[in-house]
Amino acid sequence: MGYLIRCWSIIILVLAIITTVIVVCVYYTTPSDPSFTIVDFFASALNLSDISSTTTTVNQTLFFDLKLHNKNKAMGAYYDPVQVTFSYVPNIKLTFVVAEFTIPKFDQHSRRSKHVRETVTTRGIVPYNRNVTSSVFIVDVFTKVGFTSPAYRKKGTVHVVANVRVGQNGQKDTKNGIKLFDSGVGDYGHGYGGLRMQIGLLIISTATILMII
To answer: Which range of residues forms the domain containing residue 54?
Structure first.
């Protein structure tokens, strides 16, 4: 009887250790996607209170504040150059790429944010209809991101987009940040990698238990 109790105690202890390892691996080694948020956005050409806004080339600019945030608590991230494309949508039938901007590659510690506040000159923006109360821009972000965890050093593609609605003052029409979402394009599949790792740990743990028994 004492032998069986010891065996079961060992099995329970091993299961507890394995469960802890799996939980730690899930919490610390499976990276979360970085988040991208438009904090501020201003299109000078669409500021209809400024009469010169559609005639002065110096006013054909976009100002943006883009926040890039690494949500992971235990691993840093490193980015390839981040390509940001701005498209103007004066109505549902028309879309024009009006500007591009490249953020140089950079590294980012865990739980840190990077704000990119820049002004870019557009190829020209003319209000489609001054009676329309708002216009729409599409902000498209493309890059590759890797993590400091050895299991996720290989960079995965990140492609996210968002619609930014701009009012007649040229400013985005909401005070809240606008989060960019996955476009559905790319191979950013770190979550599947984490799942494969967890399955591998489970197989190893099962084999260990069988050996102990």
So the answer is: 34-187
The whole model's pTM is what? 0.74
Q: Collapsing DSSP states into helix, strand and coil, what is residue 14?
A: helix
CATH number of the domain within which 108 lies: 2.60.40
Cβ contacts of residue 1 below 8 Å, gap of 6+?
none
Instruction: Give the E-state strand segments of the chain in sequence order.
Output: 35-47, 61-69, 77-79, 82-91, 94-103, 106-108, 113-121, 134-147, 156-167, 169-171, 178-179, 181-182
Q: 181 and 193 share a domain?
A: no
Instruction: Please name the amino acid found at residue 131.
Output: N
Q: What digits encode the pLDDT tens for the residues 137-170?
A: 999 999 999 998 877 888 999 999 999 999 989 9
Integer CA distances (angstroms), 199 to 13, 44, 195, 202, in order = 20, 53, 6, 5
